[in-house]
Amino acid sequence: MPGHSTSRTPAPVQGAQVVSRVALLLRIVGQAPRGLPLAQIVRESGLTRPTVHRLLSSLLGEGLVDHDPVAGTWRFGPEIFVMGTVAAQSYPIEDLARPSLHRLAEETGESAFLSIRRGAETVCLLREEGSFPIRSFVLHEGVRFPLGVASAGLAILAYLSTDEVDRLLVQDEAFREHWGEQHSPAAIRQHLEQTRATGYAVNPELILEGSWGMGAAVFDQAGRPTWALSLTGIEPRFRAGRQPYLGQLLLDEAHKITQKLQHAR
Q1: Structure confidence by residue, pLDDT tens digits, 244-253
Q2: Which of 18, 114, 209, 265 gets the highest tally of CB atoms within 10 A of its CB?
Q3: Domain boundaries along the sequence of the chain
Q4: CATH class assigned to 16-83
Q5: Residue 230: enclosing H or E segment and its boundaries?
């Protein structure tokens, strides 16, 4: 028939659903280095309790997760550490970023972070604590946020194409209920305009009252915003008068890492 395609829809890969569920559970467990209770993993995964327990038990047998029988929590196991150590050799970003995080924390007194884009999210990879005694604990290694929610995600989202931004800002009811009107597409677009104007993103306690953040994008060898540096702290230390100073430090360090990545082999 004219216009009829002879290609057939590929058959589902056997076991693909199991792989997807295992990956989902590992992402959830990885958000809390100290471990998560089974009930929370069940709630966040949307899977049934027997399914989650069965999969976690299988992962436990492979050393991919550990279980604390006293606390009743699940966390990453030793095999994840081994895999991460091997994989890190192929991704030099952490070694390149550590000096920048140290300088940011030392210069500002705030906590400094490196996050990476993973699809429609950012994942925090590294943290360097600042000297200021009062800190914000919204951001930590392993925590994930949708692009456009935290300062790192805003910094990355601001430099994506218009079409990609439009796709990423399609929100369902669950997103709106969880993140609130302060993260509506209109509100995020306003923050993106401000980010493009200054070069750095500002998160004015949009996630947690009193907790502020600022971020700057780091670009890969193809010029894509793939990572972000960020600073977090309490509102009095992120007021308008100090933002240009913090923003310029972030931009300077982000540029240094980007330049190093351009010459990395």
Answers
A1: 999 999 999 9
A2: 114
A3: 16-83, 91-263
A4: mainly alpha
A5: strand 225-234
